[in-house]
Specification:
The complex is a heterotrimer of chains A (123), B (144) and C (358). In chain A, 18% of the residues lie in helices and 30% in strands. Chain A contains two helices and six strands. A four-stranded mixed beta sheet of chain A has the order 1-4-3-2. Chain A is globular and about 45 Å long. Chain B is an alpha/beta fold and 144 residues long. Chain B has one domain: Rossmann fold. In chain B, strand 1, helix 2 and strand 2 form a beta-alpha-beta unit. Chain C has 358 residues and is α+β, with helices and mostly antiparallel strands. Chain C has one domain: Cytochrome-c3 Hydrogenase, chain B (Orthogonal Bundle). Chain C is built from 13 helices and eight strands. In chain C, strand 6 and strand 7 form a beta hairpin. In chain C, helix 3 packs antiparallel against helix 4 and helix 4 packs antiparallel against helix 5. The longest helix of chain C is centred in the N-terminal third of the chain and has 29 residues. The chains are: A alpha/beta (123), B alpha/beta (144), C alpha+beta (358).
Chain lengths: 123, 144, 358
């Protein structure tokens, strides 16, 4: 159903993203979904001349994800959003809001994944 | 003498300020539409201002979340007495369609006292003007 | 030189919505702009867990009141594609008419607010006066001024009678005439040019690389418009994306101005080419699978990612809105601006915060 979908592993994210960048692709979005209690799914979507290219990464709960905001500056907002909503931390964000992009510090649950307490907010 | 003059003018020409708390924009553009030629509340002496310290009436649209509740409280405290607060739209009244969202506390009255409730999703400009006029009753009572 | 941090927003006369920017200034010059969001965040994507896929239409319409029609259109197109529903031709044309009416009202609204941002209040009033014609059309044809709520899965809810069609045509033609009457003021007035030309410019490469969307991207010379994907009736209606090359605030204004006029032509073509027939088909079953759909909103490209699992509740609805894509360019072009130009520059991307934060 989704065109040009490719499954990649977590450590290949940065390499694939730089390949996309040198190919002249524009970053459209990252879409995160909770698969089950322990796994999340992130779909990276790129666009070139109205054709979408996607790759899918499965992130186990508790593990960090490498940030592509160094390659695509546009990724910074959406990565911060995923930090807020799913509690997946991104390493190497160019502007890290530390889980307070949308939510206030006193909120202690991660909204989009059920029954999980948030880690403390980084200052 | 001067006090009487001010009390009279407040009821005749209220200055309004609009704050969007977390609405979908539907009510905000309707509040703005009230100020433009078709509805033109300025002919009734209603002036839109951007500074809470100048305002008599606060128009609030949208739901309250923990972050903008602080801003709303702050704006309300900065307004001089006597002041009126009008909550606009289903979201401002009770949270509306968003009441079950995780980042929504509920209506405006969870944070500040509300004088007039204007329903609608989004509220029509006619309803908003009617709400402002109803809020003026509060000032009418103060007239000398 | 000492650095000062000046807060811009969340309550600011030029912004109808709460956006907060921390402007790090040296003297009058902005050195850095740090956005702080979260004043409008509601978390409505999670409502998909408790609202079924038909009820979600009402929720996604309220992602943003200004482009509500296009949000529900994008959502319905996605669900229809997931379920393999082919909607009637007439419904496609009707969706096109209402979506272009929405684009017109949104662009006129923005042009007015933009005029207000550089202090040209009578121009603001003129644009909003013209806009009321479109609002009247919305109210008379769909029943509501702002949130028209005509889309359902499988088609549309309302039909247009021939009288309404001819009325729409005369009204938009009149609106077009009035827009053209203030064209010279908007596009060649000395003060307007002085305030907007050369302010907050983005080159073609920068805009593309920063992931800008819609008029912000097209003003920098990239001819990309999601209507080229030929959704709804755009496979039968000819149109060329509006492109400008300067990439500054003025160019963004010109793009939106010309698009507002272009929408009139599209409405005319859609109404004259509209076939007779049903306006919706019955839909059975529940959505299953994954889908990404895109439409062109007044502010740019909007993307929906949806995942269904065969029940009536969608597993995930993820909305990427155009302003979300336009915030990184905003952060990028702010350094070097004068403080007085900040409101104009912020408005030039047409910020829609309730879209951005959902």
């Amino acid at each position: 159903m989704i065109e040009n979908m490719k499954e990649i592993t977590l450590d290949a994210v940065v390499g694939e993203a730089s390949k996309m960048k040198s190919d002249g692709q524009r970053l459209v979005a990252l879409s995160c979904t909770q698969l089950d209690a322990d796994n999340f799914d992130i779909i990276y979507t790129f666009d070139k001349e109205l054709v979408l290219t996607n790759f899918r990464v499965t992130v186990p709960k508790g593990s960090d994800c490498p940030s592509i905001s160094g390659i695509y500056f546009a990724a910074l907002l959406v990565e911060n959003e995923i930090q807020d909503q799913f509690g997946i931390m991104f390493n190497g964000l160019v502007l890290d809001f530390g889980r307070t992009l949308y939510l206030d510090e006193e909120i202690t649950t991660i909204p989009m994944c059920n029954n999980t307490k948030a880690m403390t907010v980084k200052k | 003498m001067l006090k009487k003059f001010i009390d009279n003018s407040r009821a005749k020409s209220p200055w309004i300020m609009h704050f969007d708390c977390g609405s979908c924009n539907g009510c905000d553009i309707e509040v703005l539409a009230c100020l433009t030629p078709m509805y033109d509340v300025e002919r009734f002496g209603v002036v839109n201002v951007g500074n809470p310290k100048h305002a008599d009436v606060l128009l609030v649209t949208g739901t309250v979340n923990p972050r903008n509740a602080k801003v709303l409280r702050n704006i309300y405290d900065q307004m001089p007495d006597p002041k009126g607060v009008i909550a606009i739209g289903a979201c401002g009244l009770s949270g509306g369609i968003f009441r079950e969202c995780y980042n929504v506390l509920g209506g405006i009255d969870k944070v500040i006292p509300v004088d007039i409730y204007v329903p609608g999703c989004p509220a029509k400009p006619e309803a908003i003007i009617d709400g402002v006029v109803a809020a003026l009753a509060k000032f009418e009572g103060l007239k000398g | 030189m000492a650095r000062t941090i000046i807060p811009f927003g969340p309550q600011h006369p030029v912004l109808p919505e709460p956006l907060h920017l921390k402007l790090v200034c040296e003297d009058e010059i902005v050195k850095e702009a740090i956005p702080a969001l979260g004043y409008v965040h509601r978390g409505l994507e999670k409502l998909a867990e408790i609202r079924d896929f038909n009820q979600m239409i009402q929720v996604v319409e309220r992602v943003c009141g200004i482009c509500s029609m296009l949000h529900s259109q994008c959502y319905c197109q996605g669900i229809e594609e997931m379920m393999g529903v082919e909607i009637p031709e007439r419904a496609k044309y009707l969706r096109t008419v209402w979506s272009e009416l929405h684009r017109m009202h949104s662009h006129l609204l923005w042009l007015g607010l933009f005029a207000d941002a550089f202090g040209f209040e009578s121009l603001f009033m003129q644009f909003w006066r013209i806009r009321e014609r479109i609002m009247d059309l919305n109210e008379a044809t769909a029943g509501s001024r702002v949130i028209v709520s005509v889309n359902v899965v499988g088609g549309v809810r309302q039909d247009l009678t021939p009288e309404q069609c001819s009325w729409i045509l005369t009204e938009v033609a009149q609106a077009g005439k009035e827009i053209k009457a203030i064209q010279s003021t908007m596009l060649s007035d000395y003060t307007v040019c002085k305030r907007t030309k050369g302010v907050a410019a983005l080159t073609k490469e920068q805009a593309y690389e920063l992931g800008a969307a819609g008029p912000t991207l097209r003003a920098s010379g990239v001819a990309q418009d999601m209507r080229q994907l030929k959704y709804a009736a755009f496979d039968k209606i000819d149109f060329e994306p509006v492109v400008e090359y300067d990439g500054d605030c003025y160019a963004r204004g010109v793009v939106r101005f010309r698009e507002a006029l272009q929408s009139i032509d599209i409405i005319r073509a859609a109404i004259s080419g509209m076939p007779q027939g049903d306006i919706s088909v019955p839909v059975k079953g529940n959505p299953e699978g994954e889908i990404i759909t895109r439409v062109e909103q007044p502010r740019g490209e909007c993307m929906y990612y949806m995942k269904g699992n065969g029940t009536k509740f969608l597993e995930r609805v993820r909305i990427r809105t155009p302003t979300f894509a336009n915030v990184p360019p905003l952060i990028a072009f702010m350094p070097g601006l004068e403080l007085a130009d900040v409101p104009v520059a912020v408005l030039s991307i047409d910020p829609c915060i309730s879209c951005t934060e959902r």
